[in-house]
From TrEMBL:
One of its GO terms (molecular function) is NAD binding. The keyword Oxidoreductase applies. Transmembrane segments: none annotated. InterPro entries: D-isomer_DH_NAD-bd, NAD(P)-bd_dom_sf. Residues 106-299 form the D-isomer specific 2-hydroxyacid dehydrogenase NAD-binding domain. Keywords: NAD, Oxidoreductase. It holds the Pfam family 2-Hacid_dh_C. This is D-isomer specific 2-hydroxyacid dehydrogenase NAD-binding domain-containing protein. It comes from the Eukaryota. It comes from Emiliania huxleyi (strain CCMP1516). The keyword Protein biosynthesis does not apply.
Length: 340
């Protein structure tokens, strides 16, 4: 049986070497940097591999396209193209550990006042007392992490927080029905999306891993955050610090103006965001210089070429064995209706 004609369109450094290291080479797999006419390559390809933003303008010119392997977890750009008669597989199962490390970094930096420690070092200033009020911290085992979006990435972040940092973890997703993965990740309770304000009222840190869909855009708004703040203030327990929001999903889940208002009003104690809408974050945004905001450039988890090669090799075996129907066995097919 002849192998499918594959065209790779990617800007990921080292991807070709990673493919070749797995034996993914030969006349059946072509790369756009070979100098061949891209239009001719598209006419004859059955499979596209690459970043969704690069591939979205090309799918209409690939009449034989049956399968698209994304090099990213998110595939939102493909939703902007009318054609949907092909199967898309996301890059999944590899970003969770990296994002778990990113969240751990920022939780520890905030709890241990890393930035202030660095400022004191720059001034050659020794703290008068290690137990002074300015340098008290909370043990992570006393804190609660809320995970908004409990897919493979969110579950891994939960696992890192609970099993690695001893934090209590609660979650929030569309279907709050308990799953086996919740228990193994250390998630003690799962709320539905109608419990979003309760999540913000109950957790010290909230990590959003939500994709960009019509249902999630602007989901974290002023009404949710103000209601959560009121609940914390009026609760039976003594008032606690405002929660910290860490966004590693998609930027449009919370608007820039909402984040700024939440910081000014004390609904959020700090805002850590790796994603924005649009990207890059505009130069004049107040978030860049805000003392309670941490901005990173969509690098909480960067695609590794070895992960793409491994995912493609696994999916290729399925595709060659059973076509696009077999691709669904891997559990990483893109859902056109859900948008992720």
């Amino acid at each position: 049986m002849p192998r499918p004609a594959v065209l790779v369109v990617s800007q990921i450094a080292g991807l070709r070497a990673a493919f070749e290291a797995r034996g993914l080479a030969g006349p059946w797999i072509r790369w756009t940097e070979t100098g061949e006419d891209p239009a001719l390559q598209l006419q004859s390809c059955d499979v596209l591999v690459g970043e969704p933003a690069l591939l979205a303008p090309l799918v209409a010119s690939a009449p034989r396209l049956a399968w698209l392997q994304s090099t990213f977890a998110g595939c939102n750009q493909l939703l902007d193209v009318p054609r949907r008669d092909y199967t898309v597989t996301r890059l999944a199962g590899c970003f969770g550990p990296d994002m778990g490390e990113y969240c751990t970094l920022h939780i520890l930096a905030l709890e241990r006042q890393y930035e202030e420690q660095r400022r004191m070092q720059s001034r050659a200033e020794w703290a008068a007392s290690r137990a002074s009020a300015g340098f008290t911290y909370r043990r992570l085992s006393s804190l609660t992490l809320g995970v908004l979006g409990l897919g493979d990435i969110g579950s891994e972040i939960a696992r890192v927080a609970h099993h690695g940092l001893r934090m209590k973890v609660i979650g929030c997703r569309r279907d709050p029905t308990p799953r086996d993965t919740d228990a193994s990740a250390g998630v003690s309770r799962v709320l539905g999306m109608d419990g979003l304000a309760e999540l913000f009222a109950s957790a010290d840190y909230i990590v959003s891993v939500l994709p960009s869909t019509p249902a999630t855009r602007g989901l974290i708004d002023g009404s949710v955050l103000s209601a959560a703040a009121a609940s914390r203030r009026d609760g039976a327990q003594p008032p606690t610090k405002p929660p910290v929001l860490i966004n590693v999903g998609r930027g449009d889940v919370i608007g820039e103006s909402t984040a700024l208002e939440a910081l000014e009003r004390g609904w959020l104690g700090h805002f850590v965001s790796d994603v924005f809408a649009p990207e890059p974050l505009r130069e004049e945004s107040p978030l860049w210089a805000h003392p309670k905001a941490t901005v990173t450039s969509h690098n909480s988890a960067v695609t590794q070429p070895e992960d793409v090669a491994a995912a493609f090799a696994d999916n290729l075996e399925r595709f060659e064995r059973g076509g696009v129907e077999a691709l669904r066995e891997g559990g990483a097919t893109f859902d056109w209706e859900a948008g992720y």
